[in-house]
What we know:
42% of the residues lie in helices and 19% in strands. It is of the alpha/beta class. It has a 5-stranded mixed beta sheet with strand order 3-2-1-4-5, sandwiched between helices. It has a 5-stranded mixed beta sheet with strand order 8-7-6-9-10, sandwiched between helices. A hairpin with a 4-residue loop joins strand 6 and strand 7 (146-153). The radius of gyration is 20 Å and the shape is globular. It starts with a strand and ends in an 18-residue tail after the last helix. The relative contact order is 0.18. The structure holds 5'-O-[(R)-(carboxyoxy)(hydroxy)phosphoryl]adenosine and zinc ion.
Amino acid sequence: MDKIIILGIESSCDDTSAAVLENTVLRSSVIASQAVHERYGGVIPELASRAHQQNIVPVVDTALRDAGITIDKVDAIAFTRGPGLLGSLMVGTSFAKGLAMAHSTPLVEVNHLHGHILSHFVDMPDREVPHPSFPYLALLVSGGHTQIVKVDSPDEMEIVGTTIDDAAGEALDKCAKVMGLPYPGGPIIDRLAKEGNAEAFRFARPRVAELDYSFSGLKTSFLYTLRDHVAEDADFIEKNKADLCATLLTTVVDILVDKLIRASKQYGIKDIALGGGVSANSMLRERVAMEGQKRGWRTFLPELKFTTDNAAMIAIAGYYKYLRGEFASLDVAPIARYEEMV
Ligand code: KG4
Ligand code: ZN
């Protein structure tokens, strides 16, 4: 088969990224993260769009250059259509459309979440990467979503569990914010938790039916714990940061893994893959690996650089759509909300 070159473009939140794939093999990957949001405790949509506008030309240019190709060698441009921040998605979508129009290159739209779920199929030029077999279960844990997805093929996916309120990453980021930690809080909680005692506190655990999740009760009980203690001792957070992080993270990981085990039993599926920003978390990775050993799973943990938002995952999802001949028209518009996608 001829080599197919896909240029992937991702701009759904606060990372501007471009990557080049030759079939499934990664030829280049560039990610420009936006530090501008750190001090606000969250992503400011207006600032994100502006930073994407500044970054997108050099990021795409560098990805092509690193891959040693020019745009006329690209067989299709895959871009994130949604879900995400509308203004951010708009920058990537408009840029992809402009590029496609100028060079008569086919355009492929990608669902950002499908990208996270399929990130395990990106092969490295210098080594074999193990791929899950279909059907597999993907635990997708990001800042915006927490889902268990049954993946039957690259284009057949069924959400079998989802959060009924906050996403796991969102809950971690919000708890970090009230502890005065900068955004995004997830990685900092990851680090601090290693030095803390996970038994120090007790936070609410959800009781949600079937394979669904809930994190807002945990978040509220965390906030109340802080409020009650801070009323007695103003330095409470500072003194107990590591213990708070260890207890919070352990609770989140327990909740995530508990339903994952249930899903594996329910569907009789033992190929288990993680994806999304929170899958960078060391405690979650260890727990899933450990449960996997115990239960005979084949576990697939993405490389750290493919856990958070990146264009390589958009390019691989685009590659499979390219093979199926699923192209986007030039009047395609971004979609912010997941529920409106599909
Ligand atoms: O997938 P992602 O980059 O963006 C979305 O699509 O939402 O995920 C971002 C989320 C944030 O909530 C961030 O705090 C979390 O991933 N995150 C982590 C870690 N690294 C990123 N959470 C826990 N531990 C980490 N090491
Ligand atoms: Zn993401």
